[in-house]
């Protein structure tokens, strides 16, 4: 049975988490409306109903809020833990579903926010660091998935090149979805997935005999 001290700590932690979630939700709305650069901490505080001083106790700066949002979005959309289980269990078709989701359209708000982060990274070192960390996490997941589909040390560099291509295609598709009809971009995403499948199939082919000395 939980004693009164432990119960108070639990209630306090739950309230703190709920407050941080409220701050993040408010910040997300403002970032989408005004852009990251034009949104200030005071605006986020007013929107969330949290005092500025309390907000700074929860998040040291505006960039920390966006970092938490990015981590949350990545965890929800990319499902790293689920992908890792599929890799460990050898569920190759589930890995391909993951790639299809990765290249396909995501949550509109998340994609708009990601495009905003990419744009802001060129002028804000903290945002650039957040984007770099996010890119490394995503790149690592892609690389692990490719290694599960086409293992072998001799393919290491080829997997790295393909992972870079997949990441570049994904970022390009996100940008294009804001400017082109959805059905057109869906066809492009399907073509991108077919290209990845073809390259993995080529990588899976057995190596030929070694040339005679």
Report the order of strands and helices: HHHHHHHHHH
CATH class of the largest domain: Mainly Alpha
Query: What is the arithmetic mean of pLDDT?
Result: 86
Helix/sheet category: mainly alpha
Spatial shape: globular
Number of strands: 0
Helix count from the secondary structure assignment: 10
List low-pLDDT spans: none
Approximately how much helix is present in the residues?
A: over 70%
Q: How would you sum up the major sheet?
A: none
Terminal CA distance reads 76 Å
Estimated radius of gyration: 21 Å
Features:
213 residues; mainly alpha; Arc Repressor Mutant, subunit A
Question: What is the strand and helix layout of this fold?
Answer:
Blueprint: H1 4-34, H2 41-48, H3 52-58, H4 62-78, H5 80-89, H6 92-103, H7 108-121, H8 125-149, H9 156-177, H10 182-204
Helix pairs in contact: 1-2, 1-4, 4-8, 5-8, 7-8, 8-9, 9-10
Write up this protein.
The chain is mainly α and 213 residues long. The chain folds into 2 domains: 1-59, Orthogonal Bundle (Arc Repressor Mutant, subunit A); 63-204, Tetracycline Repressor, domain 2 (Orthogonal Bundle). It contains 10 helices and no strands. The chain has helices at 4-34, 41-48, 52-58, 62-78, 80-89, 92-103, 108-121, 125-149, 156-177, 182-204. Helix 1 crosses helix 2, helix 1 (4-34) packs across helix 4 (62-78) and helix 8 crosses helix 9 (156-177). The relative contact order is 0.09.
């Amino acid at each position: 049975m939980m004693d009164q001290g432990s119960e108070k700590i639990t209630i306090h932690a739950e309230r703190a988490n709920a407050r941080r979630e409220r701050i993040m939700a408010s910040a997300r709305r403002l970032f989408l409306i005004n852009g990251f650069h034009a949104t200030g901490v005071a605006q986020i505080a007013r929107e969330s109903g949290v005092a500025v001083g309390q907000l700074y106790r929860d998040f040291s700066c505006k960039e920390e809020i966006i970092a938490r949002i990015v981590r949350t979005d990545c965890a929800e959309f990319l499902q790293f833990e689920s992908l890792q289980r599929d890799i460990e269990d050898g569920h190759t078709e589930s890995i391909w579903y993951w790639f299809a989701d990765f290249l396909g359209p995501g949550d509109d708000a998340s994609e708009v926010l990601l495009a905003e982060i990419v744009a802001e990274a060129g002028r804000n070192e903290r945002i650039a660091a957040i984007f770099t960390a996010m890119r490394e996490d995503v790149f690592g997941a892609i690389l692990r998935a490719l290694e599960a589909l086409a293992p072998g040390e001799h393919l290491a560099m080829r997997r790295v090149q393909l992972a870079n291509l997949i990441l570049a295609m994904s970022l390009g598709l996100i940008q294009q979805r804001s400017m082109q009809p959805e059905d057109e971009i869906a066809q492009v995403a399907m073509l991108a997935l077919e290209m990845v499948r073809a390259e993995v199939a080529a990588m899976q082919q057995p190596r030929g005999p070694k040339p005679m000395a």
